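Input.
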Amino acid sequence: MAALTAGLALVVPTIGLVVGLLAVSVLGALDKVKSDHARRLQTRGPRSSDTMVVALSMPVALIRSLGVNVGLGLLYLVVGVVLGIIIGLVTDTNTANNVGSYAVFFMVLGTMVGPNGRGARRQAMELVDKAGFRNVYVYWGVIVFTVLFALLVLSFGFTSAPVWTGWSPSQPFGG
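Output.
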């Protein structure tokens, strides 16, 4: 998941940024709500209001997770700008669009793989485990296909020019 959305952030940075931050924030909020619910169940046992408590705590957890991911994402973005400049100088593609694309790529990758993305990774793994493949060949086929598709998206992102939708770093005020 991280490689796919990071590759999308390389090819179409604005859409990749939104999809990546939403994915990691929703999965992180789901992890927070599930862990809080498990803690409540251990301390007082199940009650009839548990479903309502989980449903009402999800929006708050989502806003909290989105805020934390945006805050840490800004730090990753600054590091991504430095890395984008270095990559641009090495590959002789040092334009604002390419540097911005690498910065957004590193921001999305950092929020998913970094220390703050632990809950999102845990929930993504749990969702994969719940898929319940009965045939081992189908299971491995899905894994191989996903990895190869992620590598395709990443290689396409590294070799093509980014397509900025809506806003471009080379023309910040339009024009």
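The chain has a mean pLDDT of 85.
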